[in-house]
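ugh ok fine here u go
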Amino acid sequence: MFRTFDIILIVIMTAAATVTYSIKHNAQNVLDEVHKLDGEIKLEQDTIDLLKADWALATQPNRLARLADAFQKDLQLKPTDSTQMVRPNELPMLKSKVGLDDAINAGLMPDERKTDNIKTGSVKP
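structure:
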């Protein structure tokens, strides 16, 4: 006959086996998900590498020169003149760069600054 202690040990052993199996099952599910994500990451990295290679081919200078020559009639491209270059001090001042000195020079008190009334520089043709 089974003693009470034997029955308790059998119940504890069965519970331990059940908990162990559930932990193993959950770990296997997580591992499967990790492998799936690794595969997706590898696919994305391969796609990025392929796109970089395509971009390198598309932006080769000799290819762009051939395209420019082929479509010269449609594009009407011509070299940039050196007089078309602008120095940074010739650019108009941004309204966000208008400071306290500009407000005082415009006759405004520091708390009355209105940047839309201050004239900014312009590029001369």
